[in-house]
Design a protein that fits this description.
The protein is about 35% helix and about 25% strand. It is an alpha/beta fold. The chain has 2 domains: about 1-100 and about 180-185 and about 205-275, Rossmann fold; about 105-175, no CATH class. Strands 6-7-8-3-9-10 form a 6-stranded mixed β-sheet, sandwiched between helices. Strands 2-1-4-5 form a 4-stranded antiparallel β-sheet, with helices on one face. A hairpin with a 4-residue loop joins strand 9 (about 230-235) and strand 10. The structure holds adenosine-5'-triphosphate and magnesium ion.
Length: about 280
């Protein structure tokens, strides 16, 4: 049975041990027993129930779940934009009490400031800090190069394609050198080809910058292609159903998506998702 197969796959603790990190390694991101209840017009909605999720330093973890299962809500709570009803979020062992520079956030829709140029958008967070001008310039220049948009430094968001805008949003988050990059369906609005380019781009960036990443998606293929581990959520109430270690190298080989092994992992996740939709 699919479920049995999935639960036989390594757990977080096994994963940490297998990678030589041991169970003593403090997760970069640690979500413990977290629940979120929304109350409106006398009614309660359990958006998240008993969520346990860990992301270890330098890991790339994906989280997949059906629409309305609470993915964005979970990310908002991790980001400190919403308070949990119970449970807690820790970053490097410290309880999260609000938003902070240790977590870089990329939202479900484009959120660039239209009145600022590409370079100014990237520099936005740095301008709120006491950083020497020369360092700001150097950091913005580095990330412009990383996202391949040096020539567009002075362009405005309205002059960019969707993929370019999302690359700027990623640079804007990374320029603050967060401990963890949180992404909410970052490529959801892109066409299939651009989406694939962006997947390769984010893998390369991850490799080059050693950033720890948690990326949310409802696209199973993306979850398997990008994630070293993948969590699967179910709905009503929003909860973690299972998680698995993805047994493929993250070397950006798009052809891996066509192999029987890759398709088998996709099939398992798809079944898990379908079961969680009820
Ligand atoms: N501020 C809020 N007040 C009340 N209910 C909310 C609020 N935010 C989200 N919800 C509800 O919580 C549930 C989870 O919503 P959420 O946006 O987190 O889902 P999602 O998994 O991100 O969905 P999608 O894949 O469509 O983006 C939904 O039933 C939604 O209506
Ligand atoms: Mg969402």
């Amino acid at each position: 049975m699919t479920r049995a197969k999935l639960s036989n796959l390594p757990t977080n603790a096994d994963t940490a041990a297998a990678d030589g990190r041991g169970s003593s390694v403090v997760p970069r991101l640690d979500v413990r027993n977290l629940s979120k209840v929304f109350k409106s017009q006398g009614k309660s909605l359990v958006a998240l129930k008993d969520i346990d999720l860990q992301v270890f330093p330098r890991e790339f973890v994906t989280l997949v779940g059906p629409s309305g299962c609470g993915k964005s809500t979970l990310l908002s709570v991790i980001a400190g934009l919403e308070a949990p009803t119970s449970g807690e979020v820790r970053v490097d062992g410290e309880v999260v009490l609000g938003p902070g520079r240790d977590r870089g956030l990329i939202f479900q829709s484009y959120t660039l400031y239209p009145w600022l140029s590409v370079a100014e958008n990237i520099a936005f967070g740095l301008n709120l800090r006491d950083i020497p001008k020369s360092e700001k310039k150097q950091r913005v220049g580095y990330y412009l190069e990383q996202i391949g948009l040096t020539k567009f430094a002075n362009a405005y968001p309205s002059q960019l394609s969707g993929g370019m805008k999302q690359r700027v949003a990623i640079a804007r988050a990374l320029v603050n050198e967060p401990e963890i990059l949180l992404m909410d369906e970052p490529f959801g609005a892109l066409d299939a080809q651009t989406k694939e380019q962006m997947q390769l781009f984010i893998l390369k960036l991850w490799e080059d910058t050693h950033t720890t990443i948690l990326s949310i998606t409802h696209d199973i293929e993306e979850a398997v292609f990008l994630g070293e581990r993948t969590y699967v959520m179910g709905v009503n109430p929003g909860r973690i159903r299972s998680h698995l270690r993805v047994p493929f190298a993250k070397d950006g080989d798009l052809d891996i998506k066509l192999t029987p092994e890759f398709i088998e992992v996709k099939r398992q996740l798809l079944h898990e998702l379908r079961e969680g939709q009820n």
